[in-house]
From TrEMBL, chains A, C:
Annotated Low complexity bias: 67-78
Annotated Gene Ontology cellular component terms: acetyl-CoA carboxylase complex
Native organism taxonomy: Bacteria, Thermotogati, Deinococcota, Deinococci, Thermales
NCBIfam families (alphabetical): BCCP, PRK07051.1
SUPFAM superfamilies named among the record's database cross-references: Single hybrid motif
Organism: Thermus arciformis
Keyword entries, A-Z: Biotin, Fatty acid biosynthesis, Fatty acid metabolism, Lipid biosynthesis, Lipid metabolism
UniProt region (Disordered), positions on chain: 53-85
Biological pathway: Lipid metabolism; fatty acid biosynthesis
Name of the protein: Biotin carboxyl carrier protein of acetyl-CoA carboxylase
Biased composition, class Pro residues, residue ranges: 55-66
PANTHER family assigned to the protein according to its UniProt record, in alphabetical order: OXALOACETATE DECARBOXYLASE ALPHA CHAIN
Alphabetical list of CDD domains matching this protein: biotinyl_domain
From TrEMBL, chains B, D:
Ranges of residues in domain Biotin carboxylation: 1-444
Organism: Thermus arciformis
Protein name, per record: Biotin carboxylase
Pathway the protein acts in: Lipid metabolism; malonyl-CoA biosynthesis; malonyl-CoA from acetyl-CoA: step 1/1
Function: This protein is a component of the acetyl coenzyme A carboxylase complex; first, biotin carboxylase catalyzes the carboxylation of the carrier protein and then the transcarboxylase transfers the carboxyl group to form malonyl-CoA.
Subunit structure: Acetyl-CoA carboxylase is a heterohexamer of biotin carboxyl carrier protein, biotin carboxylase and the two subunits of carboxyl transferase in a 2:2 complex.
GO biological process, one term: fatty acid biosynthetic process
Stored NCBIfam families: accC, PRK08591.1
PROSITE patterns: ATP_GRASP, BC, CPSASE_1, CPSASE_2
Keyword annotations from UniProtKB, A to Z: ATP-binding, Biotin, Fatty acid biosynthesis, Fatty acid metabolism, Ligase, Lipid biosynthesis, Lipid metabolism, Magnesium, Metal-binding, Nucleotide-binding
EC supergroup of this enzyme: ligase
Keyword Metal-binding: yes
EC number, as in UniProt: 6.3.4.14
Length: 165, 445, 165, 445
């Protein structure tokens, strides 16, 4: 659903005095509640509630052909920063294997809750036997580590959420 | 072979995916962020993002591709065409990492990689190349050479390319002046006055021979006529050509011999120019699967991409030359997202309405689906439509029928279909009078 | 479900005074509740335009494949009664050739402006050498003759517009 | 022939339209009001509405169809399959009105129209039919007949149908009691105790032979195996069959001889049951193009619908029997808008997402497009998907690949694709152990 489509839906809600709407499709679930029906009518701040709290606009879903039967369907990737407003995502700049520590028996570079400085090493990604250190782009608190140790990561995959301080 | 990483995009990624599925091999599609919602990605067993949209950082990014194969557990890589398909270093690195590169060996690529080396190999194998000289020392040398080669000849700048400094000479009287002018032009254009001389082939046909080799034995799968080109871009291909049977056999056998001479592995194509007398000259070899390979698949019934997989797994050639029989005639049109009315300007956009042709003798290779946004970062090929019929005339009519029922529409989206419809209706085309300057000469485009 | 479809549903809710709706299909589940019905009515200015003049719901247009280039595209058939509100259409019950008169030199059965009675012959349709008389289903004024003499007509094709009296 | 009226709908209307377009013949699609927005209508040169949705008032409405041909200036009618395709009266009326009926002559249809007459003609031509008796006068007569025919035999009610009153008898000991029971059942079910006896063919294959005739000479295009049926509805067809070469030749030649015996014109199919020993028995002839004709087109390269057009124009057969060569293996699945999980209940609706398979060896015949509303008035066939490959095993894997990439979706819309996927995976199917009760026995459906 595009923002434009959402806007059309919301306009329709206002026009029609709808106070609550739940819409679930295979692609999305939409819930809208509009308070103060009376105000809608009696005062001109008709669209205030909507303007004040625009529902989150979901990423556009591809009108993608589904591989039927067992065909795998790429999941709409969850956007991790939804869980942590204001957080900065550290994404994988290369493809490889994610390691939290410089060696199997070494302690991890960082844990959730740690304070890190800009330029501090957060993890390594091994690609073709080379260990690539991934540094933090900001100073802040490690709010979440999104990948398990030893897991493969693709280009652009979110690795950490860091709350800048 | 259990799992293949497909290091390409678009229709060829889908083509490889289909071959792998039919062979029971799992697929991983490596893709840029721009191709995240592409059809090959949606249909693959797995997908892995290997970089941002620019191909230099994704589809040409060797470390990320190899790493992607390693982390997904793929034991083979199919490079498709373009990108890294003819990169010997990449093929070598795959080998070093224990990953099967589905294609020729690095040695094959190096033996045939550049035109000059390939010409040398061809001469060793007794395959004719376009007669020519090295850099000319004097006008006298040019005269002697031209006499030996036979007029018309063409002068080319050693440092040149793209037509600058080129000069066609029909008689000895014109030669001296032409050499001086060409040298002057070459100096002006490239800062180097050196020119050389080559036989000028008038209105040649562009004929290419498909081969399959296992490193020891090579078979040919006959030819394709790819003369319908615009600015050296192939637009429409067909097979078989309209050359006399004995010419067809001679070219095909020469190509087979050349490929066998270098111990060629996998699918490859040898390109020739053929003049009006049926003389043929080897130009270069494409050491990869080609865009137009389905034309050959349709007339021979042989799946070339599956063959690549089987050869890469070490299977010895299962085909004897005499078993490869041509049936009927096939034509391919390349549907590009380009506006033929505006100089073939790329025309990108979202595909909103999509209807591909069906019925007898039609094949469609396309990664489009309704709702697909054509990304602006890559080439404009969006579909290959093929028609097969018992005869060329029937194949042409079938293709016209197929194009008349094709719908690829979206805001601002233009395709080359109207161009192809004009080619198919062209009287010269219909009687087979095609040569590399057909589009310029007969269609004035 | 498209926003347009949703809007149409909501319009329908308003028009029909529905205050709550739950709709479940294999593809989606829709729940709508409308509050403040009374207010909608008591301050009619707000939604009056919609209630007063519900926009005409267009007939679903086929997302039809267009035969490109020279391919003919069936025209969305104009609805002839648009020109003549309240008129009755006389449609061809069979396929054949339309004739306004019983013989080439005879006067036509009817002209525009004529008054006709129910059961009166309006024209003939020739099908396989048989002349089929087409009668008026109503009494009224012939407002429009929609087919030329000698033209082929298909099943269901409008032939006349008659204003009942 | 300048213009053809297509007196049918759905995929076969589109198939005929494609053949006509390729032959340069203009098309008029006759359609009911329910099919106004169908793909054949949208792609035709002209369209004419011939009645309301019920087929009795439209696709079976002879006066409107003839009238439609006359007023649009069509000089030929193609009836497709079903509807009026095997109606001798309609073919005769076309002839009377100077319109070419594209199909067999009314005389052909009458000679082969009902099973009893067809069996008589077969015996004249020396083609075996299922051995059987007339109504049985006594148990003794039954015993004599059964001994002659050989056990097992089947008792059938003369007035019957649909399995009621049928009884399979394996030994003489069982016969007396079985005759009496069958008579009793027949009396109860049909009010007529008469029964007759036929050889019981256990687990037969349903083999049909495609023929083309010009009224004098007939050629066969080999066989199709249509054993995968559910309640006598064919679901999946393939060619060639897995019968031994000599059996294939014998059946094909018998069919050819029979069709030539009646001076058959146009495309037709002769159906046979084949037992485990390779004995074959003619059952009936279908005097029309059949749903599954593309299977034969894929292995022979011959366009059967175009052949119908050419024969109807008076062309003498251009094919010699020995020129008709089989290449590879083809499989067709019938995609019906039915829910295989709910007893194949029709499932109508709007097609919202549509993606057909492509790539090598795939053919799709379908009138669907995204946005098309499947009308509830007609049969549920919405697409035929075909796969060709050099061998049966490869064709099966290709079909699996093709079905895995097919998307036909809409609210509440179900198709038989999951059923076909199960058939293709079935171990008995994969080794060719197919017979008419395969679906009931091996898939328990």
């Amino acid at each position: 659903m595009t923002p434009k489509e959402l806007k059309q839906i919301l306009q329709a809600l206002v026009e029609h005095g709808v106070s609550e709407l739940t819409l679930e499709t295979p692609d999305y679930k939409l819930t809208v509640r509009r308070g103060g029906e009376v105000q809608v009518v009696s005062v001109p701040q008709v669209q205030a509630p909507i303007l004040a709290a625009p529902p989150e606009v979901p990423a556009p879903t591809p009108p993608a052909p589904a591989a039927p039967a067992a065909g795998p369907q790429p999941q709409a990737k969850a956007e991790p920063q939804d869980d942590c407003p204001g957080c900065v995502e550290v994404r994988a700049p290369i493809v490889g294997t994610f390691y939290r520590a410089p060696a199997p028996d070494a302690p991890p570079y960082v844990k959730e809750g740690d304070r890190v400085e800009k330029g501090q090493v957060l993890c390594i990604i091994e690609a073709m036997k080379l260990m690539n250190e991934i540094e933090s782009e900001v100073s802040g608190i490690v709010k979440k580590i999104l990948v398990e140790n030893g897991e493969p990561v693709e280009y652009g995959q979110p690795l950490f959420l860091i709350q800048p301080v | 072979m259990k799992k293949v990483l497909i290091a390409n995009r678009g229709e060829i990624a889908l083509r490889i995916l289909r071959a792998a599925k039919e062979l029971g091999i799992k697929t991983v599609v490596a893709h840029s962020t721009a191709d995240e919602k592409s059809l090959p990605v949606l249909l693959a067993d797995e997908a892995i993002c290997i970089g941002p949209p620019p191909s230099g950082q994704s589809y040409l990014n060797i470390p990320n591709l190899l790493s992607a194969a390693i982390v997904t557990g793929a034991d083979a890589i199919h490079p498709g065409y373009g990108f890294l398909a003819e990169n010997a270093t990449f093929a070598e690195m795959c080998r070093e990492h224990g990953i099967t590169f589905i294609g020729p060996t690095p040695e094959n690529m190096r033996a045939l990689g550049d035109k000059a080396t390939a010409r040398k190999v061809a001469r060793e194998a007794g395959v004719p190349t376009v007669p020519g000289t090295d850099e000319l020392g004097s006008v006298e040398e040019a005269k002697r050479a031209a006499q030996e080669i036979g007029y018309p000849v063409i002068l080319k700048a050693s440092a040149g390319g793209g037509g600058r400094g080129m000069r066609v000479v029909h008689t000895e009287e014109e030669l001296e002046r032409a050499v001086l002018q060409a040298q002057e032009e070459a100096r002006a254009a490239f800062g180097n006055p050196a020119v050389y001389l080559e036989k000028y082939i008038e209105e040649p046909k562009h004929i290419e021979i498909q081969v399959l080799g296992d490193g020891e034995r090579v078979v040919h799968l006959w030819e394709r006529d790819c003369s319908i080109q615009r600015r050296h871009q192939k637009l429409l291909e067909e097979a078989p050509s309209l050359l006399p049977e004995e010419t067809r056999r001679a070219i095909a056998e020469a190509a087979r011999r050349l490929a066998e001479h270098v111990g060629y592995v996998s699918a490859g194509t040898l390109e020739f120019l053929v003049d009006k007398e049926g003389n043929f000259y080897f130009i270069e070899m494409n050491t990869r699967i080609q865009v137009e390979h389905p034309v050959t698949e349709m007339i021979t019934g042989i799946d070339l991409v599956q063959a690549q997989f089987r050869i890469a797994q070490g299977e010895k050639l299962w085909l004897k030359q005499e078993e490869i029989q041509v049936r009927g005639h096939a034509i391919e049109v390349r549907v590009n997202a380009e506006d033929p009315e505006k100089g073939f300007r790329p025309s990108i956009g979202k595909v909103e309405t999509l209807l591909f042709p069906g019925g007898p003798g039609i094949r469609v290779d396309s990664h489009l689906y309704a709702g697909y946004q054509i990304p602006p970062h890559y080439d404009s090929l969006i579909a290959k439509i093929l028609a097969w019929a018992p005869t060329r005339e029937e194949a042409i009519r079938r293709m016209e029928r197929a194009l008349s029922e094709t719908v690829i529409e979206g805001p601002g989206l233009k395709t080359t279909i109207p161009f192809h419809q004009k080619v198919l209706q062209n009287a010269f085309f219909r009687r087979g009078a095609v040569y590399t300057n057909f589009v310029a000469r007969r269609m004035e485009m």
